[in-house]
Design brief:
It contains 22 helices and 21 strands. The chain is an alpha+beta fold.
Length: about 675
């Protein structure tokens, strides 16, 4: 069984194998046993009660196929046994189901929130999914310092302070931050940098900080600036501007032209922020606007973020797995998954009635801790906002379809050029990174027709191979990547060569991808690209053959005889053949982009590893010794080497080190003495 082209160098026996197995067996493998799935669901229904909760459907590997919620678990799950009422999509899901997991909740709203959490964690192929992109950026005005810092923030909101957002992109939040620094002169430096200043930094010189670190402004004056910043970010921008105008006029009357010039610059910064709002959202307050567009079997959702009557950007969302799903249901799923990461505002504007709209609002209210209202705007500013969001949704989807058409053509050209059976749905690209063998690691990036799948990137710390041998390092990476797949296939077949499975023959079947529950070790790639030449190709090919793995498409990308000349890449095939592409070929640009991405990821991971090694201390090796004790030891002895050489009595005299801890440290270094 192979995904590669029958009769091609990757799979010379593909066609014969198909005929040997026979058409009946092939059809059976493409259509899993529907009755077995129904039987398993019926077994589960017998144990269920009419209570709210969440159910998960699992396949033979234990990977999650689908996550759903129910007001009555018994009634909802029983519906899957009524085959005549199911769509083709749900029939495929039932036919692959071999186990179910149930979680009972206190209410249907709680089940709805749990469903969104589990969908984000497992990314099941039969649920509507948001792409696993980076989290949205926020502006954080910290509250854990007498002179609060203003900064960009992503990820978990653990720091104490006020969070303003979300912003649509890092670019939009950076522009706003720059303007806010000019407007309110708040510090953006870290606390350690702040503590160690004895004179103002450059930001003070260019009038983007009030220099509280050196006492150029007192605590009361800085608190006044912080208050103005909070008012401005909360939607009271007009009042803030009016106050600055009064101060500027007063300074001018007092002939204090230097202060007046500073206030003039601050006023310009406020005008810049408001002038950069491409959308008039005055009077709307805090609201998110969602509009959906559908065309060519694809769906796009445009989201506008309005906070304090200011437009903080917009983003196009293109959910996956939307086939045979009602458009309103898609939008409802998008909202629930979107607000799994982002705190809901008080108002959510949508362009259509949602299924269970009141329940969704109740669930979001429970999550946010305040009232959340979902409505369809009918008139006024809100209606204009929705019309603009709808236009943007249509235009974004049309651009995506045009780009997809171009990309689809490139992908088809790639399949032909690399002699693949079909367009690869999962491309894995590999590279190594080290400096003279030091801190060596291998890197894998994953790409699909939709782009890079950054949640599936992996790095491999080199453990056994000689780090001055690139070929040996690549062999170790391949062994660790494919060991589990090879073992599973040997276990099923009782020995012999392990081969990549046939691609799903159902046209609208979900693409195979690494689920959160299974991981990359359980998924076969459709194409493996290596950053290297003949040596890397030979090393990887031999390694896979030794593991009994055949018919995994391999291609190595080398820069050609003149490494400095872009566009002269040589593509090495497993049978020793070489190919090149025209310098201006779109396919060449695409393949170069794949190679450059793995190179970037490998170098970044290597630099991070080196940075950690630079800041590491020999005292880190002692179990049970935390940061405070390490600091006390270093302050007392001066260096880690002196701690190692210290006598037991000397260790006991160190401040903060008890007799038992001193004995523990001494025994750690003198266990063999």
């Amino acid at each position: 069984m192979s995904r590669t082209k029958a009769g091609s160098p990757h799979n010379p026996r593909g066609k014969e194998r198909f005929h040997e197995e026979g058409a009946t067996k092939t059809v059976a493998s493409a259509q899993p046993d529907l009755e077995a799935g129904i039987a398993k669901i019926r077994d589960t229904v017998r144990t269920l009660k009419p209570r709210p909760g969440v159910y998960r459907m699992l396949d033979t590997r234990g990977d999650v196929l689908y996550v759903g919620k129910a007001r009555s678990l018994k009634a909802r799950v029983a519906n899957y046994t009524q085959i005549k009422g199911l769509s083709n999509r749900l029939k495929r899901m039932v036919s692959q189901t071999r186990a179910m997991e149930i979680v009972v909740t206190n209410s249907e709203a709680e089940a709805l929130l749990l469903e969104a959490q589990l969908i984000k964690r497992y990314r099941p192929p039969f649920n509507v999914l948001l792409r696993d992109d980076k989290s949205f950026p926020f502006i954080l005005l910290r509250a854990d310092h007498q002179f609060p810092r203003i900064q960009k923030h992503r990820g978990a909101r653990r720091a104490k302070g006020e969070y303003y957002g979300p912003f649509a992109s890092a670019g939009s939040v950076n522009k706003t931050l720059n303007a806010l620094q000019k407007l309110f002169l708040l510090r953006s430096c870290t606390d350690s940098f702040f503590r160690n200043r004895d004179r103002p930094c450059l930001l003070y010189q260019i009038k983007r900080c009030s220099a509280p670190c050196t006492g150029r402004i007192d605590e009361a004056g800085y608190a006044s600036l912080v208050g103005e910043a909070k008012d401005f970010l909360s939607g009271k921008s007009s009042a803030v501007q009016a106050n600055i105008e009064k101060q500027m006029a007063r300074a001018a009357e007092d002939l204090d032209f230097e202060t007046a010039a500073i206030l003039r610059d601050r006023l310009r910064a406020a005008t810049f922020i408001q002038g950069s709002q491409a959308i008039n959202a005055s009077g709307v307050g805090d609201a998110d606007v969602f509009a959906l567009a559908a065309k060519g079997g694809q769906i796009g959702v445009q989201a506008f973020f309005i906070r304090g009557g200011q437009n903080w950007g917009h983003r196009a969302i293109f959910p996956k797995n939307t086939g045979e799903v009602d458009e309103a249901e898609v939008l409802a799923d998008v909202l629930l998954q979107f607000y799994e990461e982002v705190p809901p505002p008080k108002t959510i504007l949508v362009d259509r009635e949602l299924p269970e709209q009141e329940l969704i609002a109740e669930a979001l209210c429970e999550k946010a801790g305040h009232g959340v209202f979902i409505s369809i705007p009918q008139r006024g500013t809100r209606r204009k906002l929705m019309a603009q969001a709808s236009r943007n949704a249509v235009e974004s989807l049309e651009r995506r379809l045009a780009e997809s058409g171009t990309k689809a053509k490139t992908m088809r050209e790639m399949a032909d050029f690399l002699e693949l059976e079909d367009v690869p749905q999962r491309i894995e690209v590999y590279d190594n990174s080290h400096i003279q063998g030091d801190k060596a690691l291998g890197a894998m990036v994953v790409a699909s027709p939709e782009g890079f799948e950054k949640g599936q990137y992996r790095k491999f710390n080199i453990k056994t191979a000689r780090t001055d041998d690139d070929f040996a390092m690549m062999r170790e990476v391949m062994q660790r990547r494919f060991r589990k797949l090879a073992e599973e296939d040997f276990g099923e077949d009782g020995g012999g060569a392990s081969t990549a499975p046939e691609a799903e023959t159902t046209p609208d079947a979900p693409a195979r991808s690494a689920s959160r529950s299974g991981g990359h070790e359980t998924v076969w790639p459709d194409l493996v690209l290596l950053d290297g030449g003949k040596g890397q190709m030979s090393s990887v090919r031999n390694t896979l053959e030794e593991m009994g793995i055949e018919n995994v498409p391999l291609i190595a990308i080398a820069k050609g005889p003149h490494h400095g000349r872009e566009g002269r890449e040589v593509f090495h095939f497993p049978d020793g053949r070489e190919k090149t592409l025209p310098v201006n070929s779109p396919l060449l640009f695409y393949l170069q982009n794949l190679r450059d991405e793995v190179h970037r990821y490998a170098i970044g991971a290597h630099r991070a590893k080196r940075s950690r090694a630079i800041t590491a201390s020999p005292l880190d090796e002692i179990p049970g010794i935390g940061p405070s004790r390490k600091r006390a030891l270093l302050l007392h002895f001066g260096t880690a080497g002196k701690v190692r050489a210290a006598a037991l009595d000397d260790l006991k005299r160190a401040p903060g080190i008890s007799d038992s801890v001193a004995r523990h440290i001494y025994d750690f270094y003198h266990a063999g003495g």
